[in-house]
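Why this split exists: single-chain examples teach little about how molecules sit against one another. For that reason, every record in the complexes split bundles all components of an assembly together and asks for one structure covering all of them. Below is a record exactly as it appears in the raw files.
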Amino acid sequence: MNRDANPLLDVAGATKRYAVTVLDHCNLQVRAGEIHALLGANGAGKSTLCKIIAGLLAPNAGHMTLAGQPYAPANKQAAEAAGVQIVQQELNLIPTLSVAENLLLNRLPARAGVIRRKELHVRARRALDRFGLSDVHTEALVGSLGVGRQQMLEVAAALDRPCKLLILDEPTAALSAAETKTLFQLLEQLRRQGAGVIYISHRLSEVAALAGRITVLRDGKYVCTQKASELSTEQMVDLMSGESSQQAARKIGNNIAAAASSEQVALRVEGLSRGIVQDVSFTLYRGECVGVAGLVGAGRTELLRAIYGADIAEAGRVYLGKAPRPHRFRHPGQAVAAGVAMVTEDRKQNGLLLSQSIKINTTLSAMWKRFSIGGLIRHRAEEQAVRSMCESLEIRSTSIFQTVGALSGGNQQKVAVGKWLVRDADVFLFDEPTRGIDVAARRRIYRLLESLARAGKAMLVVSSDLEELLEICDRIIVLSAGRVAGIFERDDWSAEKIMQAAFSGYVADTPVQATSRKPAQKTARKTTRRRP
Amino acid sequence: MLVQYAGLLIVLAVLVGVFSYGSENFFQKNTFVSIANQIPDLTLVAVGMTLVLIVGGIDLSVGSVLALSSAVLGVLMVQYGWPLWAAIPLCLLAAAACGLFNGMVSIGFGIPSFIVTLGMLEIARGATKVVTDSQLIYIGSAVEPIGEPLPGVLLSPAFLLAVAAVIVGQFLLTCTVFGRYCVAIGTNAEAVRMSGIRSAPYSISVFVISGVLCGLAGLAHASRLSSADPNAAIGIELSAIAACVIGGTSLMGGRGSVISSFIGVLIIAVLQTGLAQLGVSDAQKQIITGSVIVIAVIVDALRSRWVNEH
């Protein structure tokens, strides 16, 4: 990387560690009057780096300078005072307050604590007009605006403060074409005034059109900084996926793939649509582990939820096993009764009863089926089943009566999975099964998937960790912007191809490679599919 | 099993000790008999309230439903001349209908039960006044046997009924799938849904149970006063909630015990009776009772923090 003599922002060796290192000695230089794009796959460390720059996270190592001065913001307020503004992916507005109040929230014009409404609205009006939001009423409640307008409002709020450096994390995800255009004009204007912009987006065509230079991160590490004009979108994808494409080539001999034996259909999804998920079709065979890859917001979790009936599908059908009659589940209860289980992404939110015991969590779904007679609980059978589950999954706890909330993340996840082992199902839907858990627990979960495959269960695994999917899956379905962008088999996949497909829905000018798109409802599968 | 209730039982024993020391009339058979015969209504209501709180709801309509069911009993027996055994089912049915309404509206439309039952508090009280023409209905001896001590036992059928409700309630909570799912729903309804369990039937049933128990409480109330009072049991919901809270039931749902709530009722009753015997004024009684409730909650908060840290 050519080091500039006087960059606006200079980040050197920024490092952030939790249990694992998520950002490893990253560098970034942003010039004044430059729009600088930050690229990387999920979990590459883009958001972490931005949060460090914006004072939302304290780095474990590294130092920064802003306009030549040492810069180490203690918090967001300090960063804002120094002229660094951030607009994050998730909205930070208060929906029950008016547009004007949100816009000027931390500097409401007031006299003796009483808000001067007239001045508030005049100032808000001026700001809105400046940022092309003249159709937004200052008295409107923010909650009544569309998501796109809210996003624009956040940008306006950031720009209304003194701004030397603006950080935008996926700003266009919720914007309409017209709003995106307005935003780009604003950014261009800001650039000409000599401010710096750090821009994160999955939409590579956007990046190519907007950015002066691009910095690529991969697995928390700095890869390179290049002029945007010198890179094609394919090259960008290559840089982001990097060496993982070679790693993917190594085949893992004794993995789940070998365990699959049967060619019987376990789950067939036809034309499923719900929200962002559009017209998704695929088939899952018994003894098979199929991955679902895609970028954040590509509709992976939404797909699982629609299959499971957690959200009711708007269109499409789900066939299970040999049953000729299709389902469209309206409640998870129907899916469970039909033999589908789902391990949710967010254990704390909707996967576990944190304040209840391991025992209660483990048997929750199976109470009627296995542990009761005429509605009375068979305590002894229940405790026995829970104990043996804890033993076989190596759940570390003081007793089966311990509160789940007191367990480590890995052990919590084992309980969340163990619950469905106790209930039993034919099709398992896993949403990020190894998120936030340590290596040992992760391995235990992989072994578990393997044994499920051997038992003839079918598994659909959503994961943001592509390496993981490449290791454990027989096939990988790639979703991009809610649609199936490709279904890859072990013998013809590579991290590169998968990344390409994952981005394809967002890049108008790079069509999906014809070879990677398989007909969705493939009935005859190659039996030589799996290599020893 | 007693360990679980040790804290509450110690509080109860300390109160009895203090009052026995302060008033020589307190530690007498008569005192305990009179307490036992006063608490059936509150106990029955508190059992229902405990279940409702565990499932993550609240039932503010209990006092009005109690009054309505005793009014139905009174009108049927006095104006229509029905015998007691025939009037009881209808009186319970009226109460169950109120509970069903609470449950269906709050679960079906996703409205907080606080609001729905607040509405029912007014509706049922109004209905009571319509039924009774806002007059006290004197029923007389036909209903009295339920509230009078049984010969030899010194305890009334109403008290025995309340104790039975406590036992059945606790059994329901700890030994049935129904109870297990109520606890689960109160802990995290979304996680229960994602586990493939439909929570609506359980939640609605709990409100119906609370209604029926209010009906039984109405019966007990009417028998003690030999009449149906349209202004009966105003504010009993607060005493019932207080009893549950003293017993450690969480207002956020997911945690509670019927037996603990019963001990909570006993603590309140002993406090009331004991303070009265010490000659404490009504105003001071209120201050002390209120303080005990707040202290109980503080102790409970400290306890759960301690549990979380260890």
